[in-house]
What does this fold into?
Amino acid sequence: MLRVFIADLHLRAEAQSQARFVDFLKGFGARSELYVLGDLFDLWLGDDLDLPRYQPVIAALRAYAERGGVAHVMVGNHDFLFGDAFFAHSGARPLPDLTVIDHAGQRLLLTHGDALCLADVDYQAFRARIRQPDFVAQFLAQPAGQRIATARTFQDGSRTATAGKTAAMMDVDADAANAALVEAGARLMLHGHTHRPGVRPLPAGRRVVLGPWFERESALIWPADGPPQPLNMGCDAADIVG
Ligand code: MN
It folds into this structure.
């Protein structure tokens, strides 16, 4: 059993963007499990709108399931609007944020990571607002053009706000991450979101940050019977489990 952890692919509808993921997934099949820890897509505005636009990615996930792979997909802050149709068409399984799994003799705590960025108070308030079931239902009831326009307004606002924040403000809160590890009885937390790949020590263990796909593929490939193989994460196996 091989497990593959990825996050922050931020795939876009352009064929070239989707092809990178399609090619990557071709390398894995039966006896493997894919764990997407959020932001597979740069934007997901509803299954009705985006299933047709991301047909190559959906078909690749479906083909992966058909050759015996199991894909688990967690939502990120860019694609938290997956509906039942996304999972039905892709064959992927929803992965709750947080999830604890046992792998290769380790207990792993899996999360996207944005809920732990506590110093970014504005972002946490925005996050809470847009994830209210009423807000989501109203948004998804809007015509496609209106949803696209609203998303653009949010993204412009986010870019402006981000420009006025320090890197530390937008990073994972170390105390909160440590408390989550203790609560889960885990020593390793795997997350994405911050786009700062590598390993950060915590009193209770380590925070392993997956890398974004903006410039190149990044993943943590981990056989059950061997050491983890970080791909473009700026760290090696010993940093993770040594
Ligand atoms: Mn994110």
